[in-house]
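Obj.: predict assembly geometry.
Materials: sequence records (below).
Method: joint structure prediction, all chains together.
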Amino acid sequence: MLLTSVIFVLREVLEAALLLSLLLSLSKRLSIVSSWAFIAIVTGILGAAVYGFNIDIVSEWFEGVGQEVVNAALQMAIYVLLCIVAILAMRRHQDRPISENVLAVVMAISVALAIVREGSEVMIYLSGFLQARDLLVPVLAGSAIGAGIGVSAGAVFYYSLLSLKRRAAVIVGGLLLSLVAAGMAAQVAQLLIQADWLPSQYPVWDSSWLVEENSVSGQLLYALIGYESTPTPLHLIVHLSSFVIIIFLAMAAGRSGTASLENAHA
Amino acid sequence: MSRRLGLLLTFAVCAVPARAATPVIEIEIRDHLFLPSEVRVPAGQKIKLVVYNRDPTPEEFESYELNREKVVMGSSKAVIFIGPLKPGEYPFFGEFNPKTAQGIVIAE
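Observations (raw structure tokens):
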């Protein structure tokens, strides 16, 4: 029971922890006050509890696919917020005026929503053991260990990103942000296919022989780039196009910056 | 605008018979076990899976092979669409009780 809860909670925590670390390192680089992270974690956990304890009501919505639709909406919102982060971070990187508060709030909401999404499943999981007193202690211990490993992985990630030189950090950080964001968007497609709101198709390939989704590397790749061993054509199209869109938005924000700087010099 | 609406209606009308033909497969969860733990479904077709959780505790239906993940609260049911599947075996499990809650979808 203990090991099951370690693995389960780790899986859920990892994705939100990596996103938080990525945005925290970005915020540190851009000299944004990082107190937004604390507020995001607290509101995220509260939101996860509210969502988790009302999941039975949500599940009934849209003829039984309310969970998929609400989760897809959460993921979509995170993707859009990360696009805004990419644009603002690029402007800030070029020393152009942006509202620090807006960037901090956008980062905070995206992390809070990610915690709501992943944390609600942890809340539901734990709620199942509230009555089982003999299991509650090992389950809570296992969950704490799992959460601890997830947070540690996030910390390692955070310090590795901060150890990069400025130029490498812009490229690596920007690329990771885009990959994570595209992974979030791909989950929207995945959830809506499951809900039968988008057409279901045969997968394009099966790369489970290479990286199994339930392996450690599979889980890490899932959290980082939204790895899916059997993607359908629609899933792939959404994944790739959302990656291209966020890169395009960041580059466009960067280009207009360079242009206006040149104008200023001229 | 009206042409777009017409197109939408055509799609809607076309979608109805396809939806009605979707086979429904029912699975129960009892004492953290899937019953039946082995379900046979036609290959190459979309399937509507209805999972009834008879336990008071929540469970999460999860399958890497089917690409599906969904919470099924205690004493309630969940609808999960799967497929179209190529012939083969697709294991699924209950993520909250993976040691006991194991099952397999066989597409043929």
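Conclusions so far: The interface with chain A takes residues 46, 48, 56-60, 64-65, 67-71, 73-74, 76-84, 86, 95-99 of chain B (CB under 8 Å).
To do: check interface contacts against the pulldown list.
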